[in-house]
Amino acid sequence: MQRCAIPLAAFSLALLLGPGAAGATELSGPLNGVLGSGGNPYEVVADIEVAAGDSLLVQASCHLLFAAGTAFDIHGCLAVEGGAGADTVRFEAQPPGGAGAWRGLRLHAGGEVLMAGFLLAEAETGFQVFAGRARLADGAVRVTSQYGLRLDDDDIEVRRVRVSDAQASGYPGIFAYQASPLVEDCLVTDCAGSGVGFWGPAAPRLADCEVTACNTGVTCVGASAVIERAWIHDNGTPGDFDSGAGLYAGYASGAPVVTDSRIEGNCFGVAVVLDGSVVLGDLVNDDPSDDGRNRFVANDRYDGANRHVWNETANTIPAHNCWWAGSDGVFVTDTALIDGWIWDDEELAGAGPVVFEPLAPVTAAEPAPAPALARWRVHPNPANPVFTLRGEAPRAGRLDVDLLDAAGRLAVSAWRGDVAAGPVALTLTAGDLPSGVYLARIRLDGAGLGGARVVLLR
User: Fold this and answer.
1) CB under 8 Å, gap of 24 or more: what pairs does 375-378 form?
2) Which of 52, 316, 336, 368 could form a disulfide with 75 if both were Cys (CB 3.0 to 4.6 A apart)?
3) Which of 314, 203, 338 lies closest to 257, judged by CA?
4) Per-residue DSSP letter, 69
């Protein structure tokens, strides 16, 4: 496989360009060379590609607009050197707002993509790796009609990417099929299906990620994923039994391992179905990489009753060395109480047990760290009705904070305004909303930036 070592002086500018509309540059066919912001906006009027043996560098601030049905195929090397704010390289539909209007970026065998500081918007699938090597960092993927990212090869690393607004319920925001990519320090939010989906025999890794406000958090079907230091919270539709697990594990060929993670505020915490299995903490062996240390908190969105683990299979599920808390967020050591929050052989006919003892010591039960890019805190919590919301904005932009009720409906628009990059502290009010648990949904320039539970106590 060739590598994207790109000496700029060696480039010949061999682009199939046309005059386009006033001030625009038309693109179609093979590309080889450099795209600079001086050609903005670039209007893709027919499929474009980087052919095998060719390389294309897309510089900061470039803006590519794709006509309906067009795609960007990469058989050679593509390097995208964007940044934050105005320096972001943008790949969007033409006209804007046409969700599903273009087919996205597609990487093929023998190709390589190195992308940083980018936005992929309004495509069918933002970026699909059929085969090849890909390194994505510091980007955003939003408003896709199918997958945000589909990753079908192993040599893939995705870091600090926000994926939001995958519209179709059958399509995860990030999806890996029979592949073992690394997904690290990412935020996945507002997906109509699963936030993250791992399917087929493989061992993908999900590390330091936040998955929130999706129909389901993470789905593992026959995949032995490693999930560590994740914050999987507030997924599912209240009252919908078929939605809302923080993690679904199914089929016998895979057994995901979950450690050092916080699973909170979902309809169900972890659901094990269809002869699946999962390791939530195993102190029987000598492998410290599966020793639990997970926090289960307030997985009660279905009907108000906590169900931290739902084991529908005959398999025994190890869940040693974890912390367990109810809807009030207080970690407990009462094994009878914890057992009532776990649905297994005692509640479900034919189900195997969930073995949760020994417990992790409550004195050490500080919340698991959420990714810095997406962590938001509420104080005081419970609130009545004024509270402070603190977090981090990765860049300057317009920040919107909405409070959603238990059914996921907008309860109140709490804040609208511009913020600078860096720490954010907002004093907000819930107004005359009744007591209850609400989700603060936080968006930056329309893209999901995270969420936080707000308990309102009058």
Assistant:
1) 375/210, 375/231, 375/450, 376/440, 376/442, 376/450, 376/451, 376/452, 377/452, 378/440, 378/452, 378/453, 378/454
2) 52
3) 203
4) T
pLDDT (tens digit per residue) in 82-115:
988 889 999 999 875 544 579 999 999 999 999 9
In CATH terms, is domain 377-456 a member of 2.120.10.30? no
Distance CA 269, CA 355 (A): 15
Please give the model's pTM, rounded to 2 decimal places. Answer: 0.81
Q: Return the structure tokens found at 383.
A: 């609130």
Cα–Cα distance between 182 and 147 in angstroms, integer? 17
> Which tokens hold the place of 369?
């760290």
| Closest C-alpha to 60, from 89, 38, 31 | 89
Structure token pair of residue 275:
């002869």
Q: Where are the domains of the chain?
A: 377-456
Sheet containing 447-456: order of strands:
410-419, 397-404, 436-444, 447-456
Strands 174-177 and 245-250: unpaired
Q: What is the pLDDT of residues 187-233, one digit of tens each?
A: 998 888 899 999 998 999 999 999 988 999 999 998 999 999 999 99
